[in-house]
Structure to design on (456 residues):
């Protein structure tokens, strides 16, 4: 048998081996299909996805994307693997033609990857030049793409909106600011946009004033005239403010239009119920009642941004009205120091609102440095909370935490050099004693005579 096999021609042996290999391959494929049909059907597309992944990774590297971010970006957006690399390259070229900036290209692609669809982006290639705006920002272009892609809008919709805004007299910078802050304006019809401008001009604003208001507070384009703006101005009138005062305050800070109906009433009600020193209340109302109420609203929003409820924010400001005299930047600086450095919770402000009313550089920082040093050196047995840090008077804090430890005097700052004297300087009590005069012999004789006369 072995002799017979060896005597076969070589091509027959090769045919038998090829037949056996094909049979094994078919059996393996049929076995995979019988156990997992999807695995057999998707083996070829999976290889094409791998090829696209490699091609797209190299393409993004050539266009300046960070290699460390490309892999995570493609993994989270696997729909891009279905696009042809040549089409993706054309899309990237179109984006760079709109604004030749690597920062713009990265922000647009990372925020809205679906715009790399060449069929979608090809329609926008010449539309931005047709809008006639030379100073389009990256965020404005990105917002237009995101809204158009999300709501299936075309370039003509964005062009119609921009031409409407320009036709109403808005400057290019105002149009760009609106598209940055409120890109949904693309979906609004011309009548709704015109109604806002007509309403503001009927109140007494000039056309240039309206342009300035919208430019500084572009989100006001989202407010409906009948549901928001008219009830808000009616509230101002009910509170007794004239149109001249309201116009001045709106021009001074257009964000006044962002107040909710009834919010200014609540703020003024809180201010009138304050129980504080007259000097503090006079300083609060020195800028006028309207502005004082608006300042309360701004600080309430600041506190709510850090997690306090509306009620807690009003409680903090009512208990510590001195916080209304500090700028919002200073309040944010104090709260950031409280949360990040001191590691306290923001709700500690409800228990110790005085923290927002004291001087940050002169009182908060020196006291915290002293307590932090004593805690790190193990000299404090009990933990000092925010109340124990802020409530004690300057003299009491010095006697408790600074005077027993000489090395803390430098941490406490300029107060340690003066040894934190009491409120009255030493020896002041002597000034309240009656003045003493030297007694002569004549005075003694006179006193003796008076005593004898009084006895008789």
């Amino acid at each position: 048998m072995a002799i017979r096999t060896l005597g076969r021609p070589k091509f027959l042996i090769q045919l038998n081996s090829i037949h056996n290999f094909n049979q094994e391959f078919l059996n393996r494929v049929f076995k995979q299909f019988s156990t997992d049909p999807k695995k057999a059907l998707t083996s070829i597309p999976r290889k094409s996805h791998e090829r696209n992944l490699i091609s797209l990774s190299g393409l993004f590297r050539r266009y300046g994307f960070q290699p460390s971010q490309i892999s995570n970006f493609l993994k989270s957006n696997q729909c891009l693997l279905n696009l042809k690399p040549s089409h993706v390259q054309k899309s990237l070229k179109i984006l760079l033609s709109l604004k030749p900036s690597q920062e713009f290209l990265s922000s647009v692609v990372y925020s809205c990857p679906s715009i790399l669809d060449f069929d979608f982006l090809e329609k926008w290639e010449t539309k931005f030049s047709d809008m006639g705006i030379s100073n389009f920002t990256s965020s404005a272009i990105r917002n237009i793409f995101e809204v158009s892609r999300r709501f299936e809008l075309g370039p003509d919709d964005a062009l119609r909106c921009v031409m409407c805004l320009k036709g109403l007299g808005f400057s290019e910078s105002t149009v760009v600011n609106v598209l940055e802050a409120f890109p949904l304006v693309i979906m609004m019809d011309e009548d709704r946009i015109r109604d806002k401008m007509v309403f503001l001009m009927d109140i007494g604003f000039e056309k240039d004033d309206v342009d300035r208001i919208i430019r500084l507070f572009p989100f006001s384009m989202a407010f409906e005239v009948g549901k928001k703006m008219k009830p808000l101005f009616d509230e101002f009138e009910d509170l007794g403010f004239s149109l001249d005062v309201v116009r001045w305050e709106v021009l001074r800070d257009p964000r006044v239009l962002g107040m909710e109906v009834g919010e200014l009433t609540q703020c003024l009600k809180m201010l009138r119920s304050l129980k504080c020193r007259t000097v503090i209340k006079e300083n609060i109302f020195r800028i006028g009642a309207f502005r004082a109420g608006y300042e309360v609203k701004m600080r309430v929003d600041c506190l709510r941004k850090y997690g306090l409820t509306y009620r807690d924010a009003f409680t903090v400001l009512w208990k510590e009205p001195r916080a209304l005299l500090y700028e919002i930047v200073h309040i944010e600086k104090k709260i950031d120091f409280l949360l990040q450095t001191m590691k306290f919770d923001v709700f500690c402000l409800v228990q110790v609102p005085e923290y927002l009313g004291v001087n940050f550089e002169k009182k908060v920082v020196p006291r915290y440095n002293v307590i932090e040093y004593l805690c790190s050196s193990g000299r404090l047995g009990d933990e000092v909370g925010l109340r124990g840090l802020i409530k004690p008077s300057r003299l009491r804090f010095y006697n408790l935490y600074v005077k027993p430890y000489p090395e803390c005097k430098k941490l406490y700052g300029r107060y340690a050099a003066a040894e934190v004297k009491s409120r009255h300087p030493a020896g002041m009590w002597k000034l309240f004693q009656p003045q003493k005069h030297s007694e002569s012999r004549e005075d003694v004789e006179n006193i003796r005579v008076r005593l004898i006369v009084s006895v008789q």
